[in-house]
Amino acid sequence: MMSKVLFQKKQTIDYKLMMNVKKIACIGAGYVGGPTMSVIAQKNPGIIVTVVDLNQARIDAWNDSDLNNLPIYEPGLADVIEEARGRNLFFSTDVEKAIDEADMIFISVNTPTKTYGKGKGQAADLKFIELCARQIASVAQSDKIIVEKSTLPVRTADALKSILDNTGNGVNFHILSNPEFLAEGTAIPDLQSPDRVLIGGENRDAIEALVGIYEAWVPRERILTTNLWSSELSKLVANAFLAQRVSSINAISELCEVTGANVDEVARAVGTDSRIGPKFLKSSVGFGGSCFQKDILNLVYIARSYNLHAVANYWEQVILLNDHQKSRFAEKIIRDMYNTVNGKRIVFLGWAFKKDTNDTRESAAIYVADHLLSEEANIIIYDPKVTAEQIYRDLDYLGTRSSEENKRLVQVVEDPYEACKDAHAIAVLTEWDEFRTYDWKLIKEQMKRPSFVFDGRSVLDSSLMESLNFTYYKIGSDVNQK
Length: 482
Ligand code: NAD
Ligand code: UDX
Fold this sequence. Notes:
Strand order of the largest sheet: 3-2-1-4-5-6-7-8
Distance between the termini: 62 Å
CATH class of the largest domain: Alpha Beta
Bound molecules: nicotinamide-adenine-dinucleotide, uridine-5'-diphosphate-xylopyranose
Radius of gyration: 24 Å
Strand content: 5-15%
CATH architecture of the largest domain: 3-Layer(aba) Sandwich
CATH superfamily of the largest domain: NAD(P)-binding Rossmann-like Domain
């Protein structure tokens, strides 16, 4: 046993020497590139890690001496940045210099759903990936390991390799797939103690060079190595499985509401079966975030492109159910408020797609708000981390109504108590912890009557809400139906 461990360690050291990774570049300083590289730098003080981005404002924010101004909010991130930045972690807009100097280059740019042409609304848009590949090929004067950190359709490494080899300067490129499994809001603990690290590749030395970097803090048995295609596909599948659990419990939440069952109790009863497990069974107003919908749509598109229609239809249902959950929440608000919300003050507590992040991409709140605004509701929004500019940008992006109209109907506030004054209803859209601790008695006294609360996250204490005479609905158990 002992000799096996020693042997593995020795092998790693040999490979590291062989590949000699002294400098890492990461293209893309977003929600993945920033935190991931910060932890790699923190755990590998001997390696210089440079994170580059075209977005000057984002890089300036990463370099801001006031750690409150980092471009993304993640608990624990500021401490890691404080430790590593300026020591062996750097943020820059000089993409070419970083590429030129690096032995290993992570590509961590965005891969959104295509909004045009073939595959519009489903396929992943790989234009940013291709731009990176072309730039790397034109700049690189020495052999490089290229690591796919972005989530990509299966077989993208083929396209990358072709671009790199055909447009490069005759140097060697080894491509690895190393998808990221961090979840926002828990990115730092997820990175510091991952369930697994997945590395797919063909070249053994390149794989071991990357293994060596993770081995600085991740136990070897948690570092899985596979072929390229398994690694690329596993990322899409992992997200599809997680989202599927949320849609499954959300489907049951609607059934609970008409049968008198309670979805939290059902989730507990089901999740205590060790074969099923308790995680990702929290019913909600619908999943959001930049990944689940995009990656399932991509999986569906890939299956269809291989004529696997039954497979595609199966996974597409996860998205359709999620859309249904968002719109039925909005419909429930309208129905309970006597079928009209026109001119009524409805307070949204939360706008981010989940707690502990300022990210709003695909947040359920956006779609619920859009639905209610089409019924001429007045929406007052409070979120502890999301800016007013971001909220108006999210609504304007939908293009449902003019920007002026969104400004007329929506107000963003910084004080939740002020927001709730004279409100007809409160809707909880994000599960921020602070919502539980509010003075609900005071809020009730200042609201219009009846005082509706629509809890899309089941975060509030239902017995307290009932005792204060709120007309309280929480997803998956309609207490008013008893
Ligand atoms: P993001 O939009 O936050 O960041 C991407 C960054 O890449 C942007 O700052 C953009 O300016 C930059 N960029 C794009 N093209 C560039 C180029 N040619 N040169 C330099 N910079 C460029 O995206 P993200 O959330 O960090 O996601 C990145 C990838 O990781 C995606 O494929 C996503 O699916 C995947 N992923 C995301 C998460 C998550 O929780 N957000 C988790 C796992 C995987
Ligand atoms: C997800 C994956 O978890 C992560 O592994 C991957 O790398 C990126 O995509 P993220 O989108 O950041 O991470 O957050 P996650 O915690 O998965 O939540 C996604 C959405 O599902 C959120 O809107 C969340 O509120 C919702 N959700 C999650 C539920 O409604 N119920 C649950 O039980 C869990």
